[in-house]
């Protein structure tokens, strides 16, 4: 496969002929109040990023520089983030990250399914005349070289290639589950089955779709137009398009791999409060599975201009420090202890506080004498002096949301009726 070198990376001609479409219009209702004012792809992650930064960075690092982001639900903060952080591609060179909000382009309906969202923008996709269309979910955390997947798609003569990963059987009902033959051809695909079947030869794993699809463009157009005419369809890739194509087309599976090592890759669906909290705190490990310090596969984002993090006071009983934690720029920890936690930019922790096993989103302010444990604190929360969170579940449930695993979610609305929306 011919390649040329761009910015120190080898970029294939196949990726240059590919248009990426990122589906970023979903609310993510399993995140509860955290998505009251933002779409799931706009949720903060990793101390300085938003979830959408991961598929966008994967595209850029893979050499795919023509990217359309489809938005719908409460997209203001998502739109603003992309405009601020992703305007560096050269439009004069045909490179772009562009937003496509739902516009009722075909009729009076908003996007009613993932396939319908792409269908409503077929005229725009046609304008770019890509040979391949890469369709991505905008709400997962992972690193992936899409170029190898596109190459496998072409090499095997597939009509559609589906990115897949093994997941624990107990959570497989949240995904599209597939069976494949020895040649990685998909022979069955069931979207979110109530009783998923394990992968052959294993009892505790199922093969799940990652919501990543490579289509040959002509096939994509044909299947979307065919699905549009089906009155019984929900116009969804997982529920309708892929199961129907298995009977008539070559549908291949592509096993997910780490883009640098080639081994098992890191992939997280952070669609619940528990999963989001866990994935953030996993980053505090000495050697985390997700390496955010990797210069070979950087995660790009909007870089806020803030001062370095600061820790002040060194008195007995009033010592400002953090251990086993990630502390972003602009934070001030004043005479308080932060353990096994993650603080996003501009967090202020006043004196005599204990913060443990917690994730604090940007611009959170914690008053004096607070004790916070196993919590996820939303953006712009102002925690009153003397507040205790995470030590009495019954008391927490009266004011906040407590997840099945006991993570306490706190939002500005829960603290006060007079608040700025957390975007």
Automatic annotation (TrEMBL):
Listed SUPFAM superfamilies: Nucleotide-diphospho-sugar transferases (SSF53448), Trimeric LpxA-like enzymes (SSF51161)
**Organism of provenance:** Cellvibrio zantedeschiae
What sequence ranges are listed for the domain Nucleotidyl transferase?
20-284
Keywords assigned: ATP-binding, Carbohydrate metabolism, Glycogen biosynthesis, Glycogen metabolism, Nucleotide-binding, Nucleotidyltransferase, Transferase
PANTHER family listed in its UniProt record: GLUCOSE-1-PHOSPHATE ADENYLYLTRANSFERASE, GLUCOSE-1-PHOSPHATE ADENYLYLTRANSFERASE-RELATED
Pathway annotation = Glycan biosynthesis; glycogen biosynthesis
Q: Which residues bind alpha-D-glucose 1-phosphate?
A: 111, 176, 191-192, 209
Question: What InterPro entries does this protein's entry cite?
Answer: ADP-Glc_PPase, ADP_Glu_pyroP_CS, GlgC_bac, GlmU/GlgC-like_hexapep, NTP_transferase_dom, Nucleotide-diphossugar_trans, Trimer_LpxA-like_sf
| Glucose-1-phosphate adenylyltransferase/Bifunctional protein GlmU-like C-terminal hexapeptide domain span | 307-410
Q: Which residues cross the membrane?
A: none
State the protein's name: Glucose-1-phosphate adenylyltransferase
Catalyzed reactions: alpha-D-glucose 1-phosphate + ATP + H(+) = ADP-alpha-D-glucose + diphosphate
**UniProt EC number:** 2.7.7.27
Member of which family?
Belongs to the bacterial/plant glucose-1-phosphate adenylyltransferase family.
Question: Where in the chain is the site Could play a key role in the communication between the regulatory and the substrate sites?
Answer: 72, 110
Cite the record's note on assembly. Answer: Homotetramer.
Q: What does this protein do?
A: Involved in the biosynthesis of ADP-glucose, a building block required for the elongation reactions to produce glycogen. Catalyzes the reaction between ATP and alpha-D-glucose 1-phosphate (G1P) to produce pyrophosphate and ADP-Glc.
Q: Which GO terms describe its molecular function?
A: nucleotidyltransferase activity
Keyword check for Nucleotide-binding, yes or no.
Answer: yes
């Amino acid at each position: 496969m011919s390649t040329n070198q761009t910015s120190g990376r080898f970029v294939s001609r196949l990726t240059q002929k590919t248009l990426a479409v990122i589906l970023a219009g979903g609310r993510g209702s399993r995140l509860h109040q955290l998505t009251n004012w933002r779409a799931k792809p706009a949720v903060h992650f990793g101390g300085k990023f938003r979830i959408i930064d991961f598929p966008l960075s994967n595209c850029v690092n893979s050499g795919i520089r023509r990217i359309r982001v489809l938005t719908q639900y409460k997209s203001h903060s998502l739109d603003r983030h992309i405009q601020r952080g992703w305007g560096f591609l050269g439009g004069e060179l045909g490179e772009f990250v562009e937003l496509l909000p739902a516009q009722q382009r075909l009729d009076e309906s908003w996007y009613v399914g993932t396939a319908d969202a792409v269908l409503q923008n077929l005229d725009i996709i046609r304008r770019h005349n890509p040979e391949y269309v890469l369709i991505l979910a905008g709400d997962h955390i992972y690193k992936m070289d899409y170029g190898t997947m596109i190459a496998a798609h072409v090499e095997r003569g597939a009509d559609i290639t589906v990115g897949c990963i093994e997941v624990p059987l107990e959570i497989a009902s949240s995904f599209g589950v597939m069976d494949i033959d020895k040649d990685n051809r998909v022979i069955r695909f069931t979207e979110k089955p109530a009783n998923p079947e394990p992968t052959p030869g294993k009892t505790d794993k199922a093969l799940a779709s990652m919501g990543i699809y490579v289509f040959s463009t002509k096939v994509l157009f044909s299947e979307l137009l065919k699905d549009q005419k089906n009155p019984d369809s929900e116009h969804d890739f997982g529920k309708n398009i892929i199961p129907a194509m298995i009977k008539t087309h070559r549908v291949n599976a592509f096993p997910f791999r780490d883009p640098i090592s080639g081994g098992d890759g890191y992939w997280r669906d952070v669609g619940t409060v528990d999963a989001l909290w866990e994935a953030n705190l996993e980053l505090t490990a000495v050697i985390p599975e997700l390496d955010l310090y990797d210069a070979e596969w950087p995660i790009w984002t909007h870089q806020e201009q803030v001062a370095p993090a600061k820790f002040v006071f060194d008195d007995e009983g009033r010592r400002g420090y953090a251990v086993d934690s990630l502390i972003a720029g602009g934070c001030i920890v004043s005479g308080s202890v932060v353990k096994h936690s993650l603080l996003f930019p501009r967090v202020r922790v006043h004196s005599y506080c204990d913060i443990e096993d917690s994730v604090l989103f940007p611009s959170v302010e914690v008053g004096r004498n607070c004790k916070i444990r196993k919590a996820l604190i939303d953006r712009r929360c102002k925690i009153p002096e003397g507040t205790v969170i995470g030590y009495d579940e019954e008391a927490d449930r009266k004011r906040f949301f407590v997840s099945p695993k006991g993570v306490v979610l706190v939002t500005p609305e829960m603290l006060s009726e007079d608040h700025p929306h957390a975007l």
